[in-house]
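C-alpha cells help. One example:
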Amino acid sequence: MEARCPVVLDTAGLDVHAEAARVRANGPISQVELPGGIVAWAVTGHDVARQVMSDSRFAKDPRNWPKVANGEVPPDWPMITWVVMDNMTTRDGDDHKRLRKVIARGFTARRVKETRPLIEKITQELLDDLAETPPGEVVDLKARFAYPLPARVVCDLFGVPEEARADALRGGEVNVSTSITPEEAEANVEQWHRAMLELAEHKRREPGDDLTSLLVKPDGDDGSQLSDEEMAGTLHLMLGAGSETLMNVLSHAVRHLLTHPGQRALVESGEASWDDVFEETLRVDSPAAMLPFRFATEDVEIAGVVVRKGEPVLMGFAGIGRDPEIHGDSAGAFDITRADKTHLSFGHGLHYCLGAPLARLEAMVALPALFERFPRMELAVAPEDLEPQGTFIMNGHRALPVRLSPPAAS
C-alpha cells in the first residue's frame, strides 16, 4: 500500500466524521499524528477493526509501548491518563481476566435488571424538573438530562456520596479532552487518582449495598484484592465510561429524531422500535470517536500495512460505524429502517463493554419517557450550528439546546 503522510488529528475535534473520512482515505488502518507529534495508527475500517480487536498481538497494556519506558511520552502528555490508569482496559491475559471478573460481579443480568427502578426514578425526577421550564424557553438537554441521568445512575450504583460526586466525575470529564495543557493533564491524573482512593477508603470504613463496596471486599474464591492502583483505575474507568459515553448516545439519539420527523413518527406509531433508534445511533454516531490504545507486541502485517512492534493503535469508532464497505453509500445517514445496523461501538472480543446491557436499559427507559413527556420538543438551533464537544476522543456536542414546547400564545 502506498505510504501517505499521517493525518494530524484536530485536538479541537471540530468535525470528527470529516476527519474519520480523511483518515479512511489513506486505508482502513493508517497513520495519524497525536498531540506532541506522536505518530500512531488509527483503524476506521469495520473488518480490520474486528481483526485488531480479536488479535492478541495487539495488546492493551501500555508497557508494550517503548516510548513510555524511555521517556518520550512525558507525564504531562495530554493523553497520559489513557496510559497510566491501571484497570481491565489496560491489561491483557490473566491480569485482564482477574480485573474483569471482579467488576463483572456488579454487572450480572440480575443486577442490571434490578437497576430499572433506579433508572425510572431518576428519569422521572429529571423530567419533572424540565417540565418546570416556561413554554418556549431554551434549555440545554445535555446538561439537564443526557448527562445527569447516566451520571446519577452510575454514582448511585457505586455509592458515591453526594458531596463527592463532582470530584469523582471530574477526572473522566477532563480525561476525554485532547486540548488540555500539560499542566492540566498532570493535575488531572493526580486529582482523579486521589478522588478514587478516597472513595474506596470511605467504602472500607462504611460499606453499603453498592459496587464500590463490592470492589473493596476480598474475592470470595481466593481472597485476593485489588491493589490501590487497580482500585483507582477501575473506579475511574467505570465512573467515566458510565457517564460520558451514554451521555453522547442519548444526545445524538434525540438530535437525530428531532431532525428526522418521519423516523420519529415511525417510532411513535410502533412501526420501528426504540431499540432500532439505539442501535442506529450507535452505528452512525458512536459516542467514542478515536479511542486509545492498543500496542503491537510484534510486527503485524494487516490490510496491506505493517504495524511495527511497540506502535500504538487507536480504534476510530466514529469511522468504523460509517464504513461504506459495510453500509454502502448511505453509511453516513441516520436510518432506523435499515436492515443492517452492524456496529462495533461496544467493542469486540475480550474487551467487549461490560456496561453494554446497562447502557441499553438506561436508553430504553429514558428515550421513550422523554418523548412521551415532551411530544412537541424541537431543536432550538439549526443542526449545523451545534458546537462539537471539543475532542477527537469522543463524539458529542457541547450542548443540545431545545425547546420542550412552543412559546405560549401572547
About this structure: The longest strand covers residues 291-296.
